[in-house]
Amino acid sequence: MRDSLPSTGSGRPGFWLLPAVFTLFLLSGCAEDQTVLERQVLFSLPVGMLETQFDSLGYGTAAPRNKNRIVMRNDIIGISNGVRNKIMEFTSYGDLLSMYYHPQQNPKPITLLEDSPEQQQRRLINKKAHPYTFQEIGEIAYTSSNTLLVEDHVPDSRRFYDEQAGVNLRHVVVRFDESGRYRDYLGQEGIGGTPFPVIEDIQVNRDDHSIVISKTPDAHQVFWFNQQGDRLYSLEFTTQTLPGLGDQGLIPTIDRIVPAASGPFLFLHINYYPESREGSEGDQEYVQSIVYRFNIAQEQYDRSFPLPLNLVQPPGTLSLSGTEVQFLFHLVGLDAQGRFFFISPSLQDQHRVIVMDSQGRVVYRSFIAMSDDRILFRDLSVTPRGILISLQVYNDRTEVVWWRSDQALDS
């Protein structure tokens, strides 16, 4: 669902120095590749603790400990503020619709009325505040019926230590129904189950199945649930079980795992790193990136496609100087049509965006502007309609911005 980074400053992540000559699948510098998607600021949130404010406490020189996320579905923009253990829901115009919040860690809402049986019975209040004693919120997601899924921790008394995996099991997925009332929580086995290891992602596909991606020191684990909360699948991916590229001495690393838009399929975006960045003279050391489809029913990989290399010539250097910079693509997510959205850092506050179909064809490419040197933290996700939307935290404000990639794809 996303691309989440603390401030990168001048040391941008994910690049390798490479020789200048390649015979691989490269992104060209043709005219259409220079398109820049317009950045639109939907609304801003001032710094603070109130219901229409965002608490950026702890940002700056270090990566934030608490997660902060943005997702959009059914025209509702959900924003989680981990420092405050609250989730705010807005329209695209910035009107606050509702808020889920820890009552001991947040002031009582002024513009929202707390949910109560009397209000539910009268149905007079559209804007509601839902108090809930979150322990530590993380990832968030919505179903098509606006059920809210929230990563949370269990109290210390309910945590487990998995000696075999070497991890603490303390993460659960709390579910709130479309009216904002607590429904239940999901664990590894389903409703009320054993807590998960560290949760990296929560995804919801077109079938309204909830897919939880967890991480242990040695594996990625996938837990797949239907609408009722019954577990359908449980899978594990380790470095040893990932697809290899023959005897090339490459080390596979998972960038992201996402479910297909529909059906029992997973997509794994894998980067293959050379064992050493220092190749002998004439060698072309680079990172290969491939997307694999894993067919759960057949328990095998049945499809794959490579990503193009994103090579950038540093400013002030000659094209034949012998060195280019490779910036790696990160999988932001899939839209409802199953198109893949990738983003990669570039130079001069620009990021390259490519959209690929399920056959691995690049169907759209452009740049978007993000000033990483000024942004303390950002979270980027793609909506089911194919809109790129981002939460961008600055010293004095937090902006919600989007890029209408959906319109560009449909034009």
TrEMBL record:
Organism: Spirochaeta lutea
Name of the protein described by the UniProt record: Lipoprotein
Domain of life: Bacteria
InterPro entries: LIC12708-like
